Amino acid sequence: MRIAALPMYDLPELRGAHDRLWAALAQRLQAAAITSVPAQLTRGLSCREIWSHPALLFGQACEYPAARFFRDHLQIVATPRYGAAGCAGTSYRSAIIVRADEPANGLEDLRNRRCVANEPDSNSGMNLLRAALAPIARGGRFFESVRFSGSHRSSMEAVANGEADVTAVDCVTLAHLQRYQPLLTSRLRVIDWTPASPCLPFVTTSQVDVAVLQALRVALEDVFADRALAADRAELLLEGIDLSPDGTFARVRQLERAAERLHYPTLS
Fold this sequence. Notes:
Blueprint: E1 3-4, H1 15-31, H2 47-51, E2 56-60, H3 63-69, E3 74-82, E4 91-92, E5 94-99, E6 114-117, H4 123-133, E7 145-148, H5 152-160, E8 167-170, H6 171-180, H7 182-185, E9 188-193, E10 197-198, E11 202-205, H8 210-225, H9 230-235, E12 238-242, H10 250-261
Parallel strand pairs: 1-2, 6-7
Antiparallel strand pairs: 2-11, 3-11, 3-12, 4-10, 5-8, 5-9
C-alpha cells in the first residue's frame, strides 16, 4: 500500500486542514484511476523514514537532506507558495531569532554566543544560517557552541529560556507558531533573515511513473483552485503552487558551496 505524509508543518492545530487537503487530493487521484491511493495521511514515521519509503506517493521534504541523501529516491512534484513574512513567490527564508531582551543589534553581535539548531542537515535551521554567517565567520568558526534540539519549537524554547542565544527558524513555521504559541514567540524577536531558497517541495518517490506524476500535478492544481478548500489552504498559509519546479535542488547546494568557499563548511 502506498503512503502519503505531510510532516513538515503538521502542528496539532493544523492536522485537520492537512487531513482535508489530502482527502481532496486522494479523491481526485482515485477519479484519475490511480491505484492504491491511501485513504489517510501516515503519521508516526520520521521524516527520513517517509522520504526513503519505497511506497511514498505524496509527501513534503526539506530540500537540503533531500538533495544530500534522498536525491535518487525522490522527485519533486510541485513547489508551494506560502503567505508568511519572509516568503517571496516560491522562496522562503529563515528568521534568525534571539530573546526579546537580547541587546545585540545584528549578526556580528552574536559572535561567540551559543547557537541551537533543529537538525544538523536542516536547510532552514542549518544550511541557511550557515550561508548567512559564512561572510563574517573567522577561521571556520563563529559561535562559542552549537547544539541540536530536534525541532524548531524546541530550539525556540531553548533561546526563550536562556539555554541558548540564537537559532534559525523557517518563516512558515514561525508564522504558524506566532498564531498558536504566542506566549513562546512573544519572548523572542527576529534579529535578521537568512538568504532565500525554494519552499519545501511536495515530492513523490522516483519510482513513480510519468502518468502518476502528471496525475498528482493535475490533482494539486484542482485542489489549489477549489473554493471549498480555501479556508483550509488559508489555515496552512498556502497561497499557490508551481507545477513546473526546478527538480535539481540547485539553490541549496549553491548556498552550501558558497559557505565552503568562504571556509565555513560547518555551522560552528
